[in-house]
Amino acid sequence: xxxxxxxxxFTPSPGQGQRLKELLQEKEIEAAxxxxxxLVEDSSFLSIVIGDLRKGFIFKEAKQVFVTDEDIFKRYRExxxxxxxxxxxxxxRWTELKEEDYVVHIDYGVGKFxxxxxxxIDRKKNDYFRVDYKGTDRLFIPVHQLxxxxxxxxxxxxxxxxxxxEGGRWRWIKKKVRKATRELASSLLRLY
Length: 192
What we know:
Thrombin, subunit H
């Protein structure tokens, strides 16, 4: 895009507009955030406008590029929608789990569900979900923390890798995914 063109980016909500502005600032790109299109100033190279625009376009005569946040984050949204459709994989009742099912603990990653065990800890008997990891690693999760577990959903029939609790591999994977997401957003922002 030639420098004399103005870029007007439309986003549906003030919260998304603010987040987009912050993402741009992280990349040292200044953008004016405006509540309405008519408030966009001629001096602004890049403006974020709160409003709906179905599809981006270039208005050559006015030297303006109109972009929707969907144009920028389309791939991200498609992935999120796929994940949303998999939200059904959230475990609502422990009876949905069968022994040997692969599950994902939000903090510790993929493991194998081994059932419920009653343990005596601090002179109190409580029920815990047992999840086995690599080798002899085991995690006992209080049953009231069922929301920390999700059914594993894979893209193939191959069993998922199960890591050790000590290795920090799951934290590394989550960090790598966050970094890749930031890089994707950055490269998309460079396009516009």
